[in-house]
Structures are given as structure tokens and as C-alpha cells.
Design brief:
Elements (H helix, E strand, L loop, with lengths): L1 H12 L2 H18 L3 E7 L2 E7 L2 H7 L7 H10 L5 E5 L5 H7 L8 E5 L11
Parallel strand pairs: 3-4
Antiparallel strand pairs: 1-2
């Protein structure tokens, strides 16, 4: 395919750091032009409103989620009332919200951690 060979040729001539910088700029541009909004869906049986702050969040959270096996296991007795849930790499904090809220852990606290504050929810 001609297009692939042209890209391969260019990539062999251009420094790797240039390609990395180009990728970062493309991601920043996609985030900058993304229309941020809040959506409400059912995640693991829990209705939640999630703020979509970037295209990745749209792909992950702009639809209902079925219940994952891990969530089912935790809901069947691993979480007790008032449990604390640490969600490392939380992105939007959906998993922490599902585990700490509703009937899975009444009175629970969720502690999401996300390095980029564009997507991190406020602690609740």
C-alpha cells in the first residue's frame, strides 16, 4: 500500500521525539475542541451522571454498562457498610462511585485518584 510506505519512509527520517510531540499535540487539540457535557447512564446497575471531558471519556462512559464480574463479587459480601473504596487511576471515578454508593456499601466513602484534573471527579 502506497500510503503506508510513505508514512514508514517519513517516520524513518524524522526523529522519534517529533512523533511523540505530534501525538501529544493531537491529543491536546482533541481535548480542547471536545464539547464537554454531562450524561446520565446506568453503570453496573447504578444510575449516575458523568461529566464527559474528553473523547476517551465519551467512548468509555457515553453508554450504559453491564455489571462486571468484579463488581458482582464485591457486592455479594466483600463490601461492608461504610466501606472505603480507593480507585487508583479513576479517570471519571465511575467504578468508585458504583462500589461506594447505593446498596453496595451504604454510607461508604470513595477516594478516586487521577493525575489529570480534567477528568477527576470531586471527592464525595
Amino acid at each position: 500500500m502506497v500510503g503506508a510506505s510513505v508514512k514508514e519512509t517519513i517516520s524513518s527520517l524524522v526523529p522519534v521525539c517529533w512523533w511523540a510531540r505530534r501525538r501529544v499535540l493531537r491529543i491536546k487539540y482533541a481535548i480542547r475542541i471536545f464539547r464537554r457535557r454531562a450524561v446520565t447512564h446506568v453503570y453496573h446497575g447504578s444510575p449516575l451522571t458523568v461529566r464527559l471531558a474528553d473523547p476517551l471519556a465519551k467512548g468509555w462512559y457515553d453508554h450504559d454498562w453491564p455489571e462486571l464480574a468484579e463488581i458482582t463479587l464485591l457486592r455479594k459480601g466483600r463490601l461492608h457498610e461504610g466501606a472505603r473504596v480507593f480507585d487508583l487511576g479513576a479517570h471519571q471515578g465511575v467504578v468508585a462511585l458504583v462500589l461506594a454508593g447505593g446498596s453496595s456499601a451504604p454510607g461508604g466513602k470513595w477516594l478516586p485518584w487521577r493525575q489529570a484534573d480534567i477528568t477527576a471527579p470531586s471527592p464525595g
